[in-house]
Amino acid sequence: MNNNMSPAGSLERLRALDKERMHISRAAALLQWDQETFLPSGGIEERAEQLAVLEGLAHEKLVHREVGELLDRLSDVLSLNDAGMLLNTQDGFPVGDFIRVLRRDYEKAVKIPVDFVRECAKAEGLSQAAWVEARKQKDFTAFAPHLEKMLNFARQKAEFWGWEKSRLYDGLLDYYEPSLGVKELTAIFGPLRDRLQLLLRKITEKPRPGDVFLHHNFEKAKQEAFCREVLSGIGFDGTRGRLDISAHPFTTTLGFNDVRITTRYAVSDPLSGLFSVIHESGHAFYELGLDNALQYSCLAEGTSMGIHESQSRLWENVIGRSRAFWEPWFSRLQDCFSAELGETDFDSFYRTVNTIVPGPIRVEADEVSYSLHIILRFELEEKLLSGKLEVNELPEAWNAGMKDYLGVECTDDAEGVLQDVHWSMGAFGYFPSYALGNLYALQIWDTLNEEIGPVDTMLQRREYGDIHSWLKDNIHCKGRSKEPAELIREVTGRSLSADSFFRYIEQKYSELYGI
Asked: What is the C-alpha to C-alpha distance for residues 320 and 59, in angstroms, rounded to an integer?
């Protein structure tokens, strides 16, 4: 590194290095997307090696000695604005936030050996492929050795980061939602679990609305056509992304103008694939709403997975399951499936969309039971990471938890312990983000309604522009320049709370079920 380089030159060089790393990471994401969508089975092992190479290169870029030296130099000059040095914000780019976030990423990454990164990436590719096959065969034992490996990698990663053996799960949770560890999440999830179980019992004592139209066969091609119409209608820009099919719905960002989403279709239920599409579109809107100034930098991502999930849960549930949303869309669904929907009237359809029936599948869970799925996974992860639960004991513990929390019995491993892709990816600590997303979403939604309402009128007219603009201006455009706790306080005026969520969910379902 040139020691005579000016602060401006140092910043330019650091941003160039970060840009190169981002490009490599996006290339790896493209290979991962392809693995989940179009890769032939014969290419799985080679793909795992390709991913290992790219992940290793990206890691080397991040931990290069020059990056650390540039960060040190720029950190020293940020406070010298009056002397003609760097400004904390330069041409719309938040220099101070960039250095803060990149330093955090650097200090985490520099503790992890590059050989470990490559080994982990290769194992992850093989693990995901094994999970897909085990799920098809409904056989957890075929996947168990891969899960054991991914758990060991997760433990080692947390140890590299400096977490004590008794707090390894805290380290993994911090990666997805900074400052929220086991203690903090337990304090949130305990009351959430108890109150949701109480509401669930009250609801299940009431007559269940009919859903006879869901027991027909809905042609997948027609489902896809309707999903694409809704996706375009709610504002997804097809020139900056695409929709495909995968074993498990997901969203991935391959570039500033290239965000991919996937779904899956069930012939017996046209709503399953649709709500997955709407859910993933919420993630995509976040990624596509980033400020142009953040492009090619470590700031060009969501600030946390909880905030990210708030956007997908907001679009899927708060908007997508609302009466106002369906008033203009129901007739289009009827046009697509006139024979299958028969004489179904709008009120019956709306009640079916919001039917509360605890089931085994998380991604198909209703608004009341969904967070109970997440709390169970959180508790199982904590036990797995701490060694309180062995991998071979996981199916039994899973089934017992589903029975206890939801009153549901899983018929096989595919609808039980193998239903989610996250553990095959080594994404331990991710699951709590979904429940946190529900809480963030309603707190954000209350503020949005106060500032731009009446939102229901906009939904009835299929006018989503003001909603997109508000979310972009207040959340999306900021990327990682704000910490999640700081962002939620800035947007809503208060720290994270379950108050808005409970007010919404108890009012909505008390009215629907006459509680």
From this structure: 39
